[in-house]
Amino acid sequence: MTTRSSYPLAGKRVWVAGHRGMAGAALVRRLQREDCRLLTVSRAEVDLRRQAAVEAWMDQARPQAVFVCAATVGGILANSTRPAEFLYDNLAIASNVIHAAHRSGVEKLLFLGSSCIYPRLAAQPMTEEALLTGPLEPTNEWYAVAKIAGIKLCQAYRRQHGCDFISAMPTNLFGPGDNYDLQQGHVAAAMQVKVHRARQTGASQIEIWGSGTPRREFLYVDDLADALVFMMKHYSDEPHLNVGTGVDISIRELAELVARVAGFEGGFVYDASKPDGMPRKVMNVERLAALGWRAPTPLEDGFRASYEWYVRNAAAAR
Ligand code: GFB
User: Fold this and answer.
1) Which positions are annotated as active-site residues?
2) Cα separation, 48 vs 41, whole angstroms
């Protein structure tokens, strides 16, 4: 059984590494409801892939709590075409921030991984124990290896140095501030862009990569932020914890959902030249639920809010 611990954030200096990304920005929004002092630093000031720069920033800013949201991320195509960046950047960010946190005496650190750490053919829904039990999905093994190293770093620093470092494994995310680049981003953002463009141009069909049959679990990013704050306050142990909804849908069902939200009544065509990736990816979220957290936002409400945000803030800029 997982026991609940207590680490109040009130009065703490809290660094969100990666505050400009979708997850980091949601966390900044969420932390504004906590009585803590928020620290952020731009990539231009501190490149997290440079160890000396990270150590100098930590020495000067002296955060007490750190959320490691910074990462080089992307969808299935970006992952499979930029393997060196996905491996190197994410290994460097994880090792630099985690080591510097130990060195500067950070009280608590939460590292963000990804559900792609689990084997391609892991039993579904995937439990935390599935880690390292089989071969990874080839389209994202570079990213997965780096994220597995991040989990292991947290565990190693806990064992050897007694650091209170924990890890969360979020499922596929969506929400305000996503990457709307069709080549680089994930399917949730791509569907919003494609449906919106089709409505504007009067196109009768939108294109779906692959077969439309893979199944994914989608978590609204503001729910993720809430879970991260919950874990920071209440979880302190070696195993990583899954963060998701525990419910999956097919990519075709996702396209239908986004079409419904946006009022697109056309059809779908499938591009078989694009990869499907993992056949199914859904998490077992019982451990976090046993501690007291479940995702509060219904899927359709989350997509409605995301699509409205996209139309208001990002669509015109593209
Ligand atoms: O979201 P996505 O790029 O990443 O793709 P993964 C999910 C599924 O949606 C795949 C299909 O089966 C895609 O082929 N898909 C359909 C599309 N149409 C589109 C489209 O227009 N754009 C995109 N991007 N996909 C990523 C990993 O895997 O998930 C990362 O590569 C990370 O490492 C992330 O873990 C959460 O879910 O397949």
Assistant:
1) 143
2) 10
- Partners of 13 in the beta sheet? 37
> Would you state the structure tokens that stand for residue 89, as one six-digit string?
């950047």
C-alpha 167/C-alpha 171 separation (Å) is 13
For residue 114, which atom of ligand 1 is closest to its CA? 35
Distance 186 CA to ligand 1 centre (A): 5
Mind listing the pLDDT tens digit of every residue in the chain (318 residues)?
A: 678 889 999 999 999 999 999 999 999 999 999 999 999 999 999 999 999 999 999 999 999 999 999 999 999 999 999 999 999 999 999 999 999 999 999 999 999 999 999 999 999 999 999 999 999 999 999 999 999 999 999 999 999 999 999 999 999 999 999 999 999 999 999 999 999 999 999 999 999 999 999 999 999 999 999 999 999 999 999 999 999 999 999 999 999 999 999 999 999 999 999 999 999 999 999 999 999 999 999 999 999 999 999 999 988 765
Contacts of 90 (CB under 8 A, 6+ apart): 71, 72, 143, 146, 147, 150
Q: CA separation (Å) from 11 to 31, 40, 141, 194?
A: 12, 16, 39, 44
Which structure tokens are listed for 292? 């007291």
Query: With a 6 A CB cut-off, is 113 part of the ligand 1 pocket?
Result: no
User: What residue's CA is closest to ligand 1, atom 16?
Assistant: 209
Instruction: Give the predicted TM-score (pTM) of the model.
Output: 0.98
Tell me the best of 73, 187, 271 to mutate to test the pocket of ligand 1, counting ligand atoms within 8 Å of each CB and taking the most. 187
Report the alpha-carbon angle 293-299-303, nearest 5. Answer: 125
Ligand 1 pocket, 90 CB below 6 A? no
Cβ(72) – ligand 1 distance below 6 Å: no
Residue nearest atom 6 in ligand 1 by C-alpha distance: 76
Comparing CA positions, the residue from 29, 19, 93, 101 lying closest to residue 64 is 101
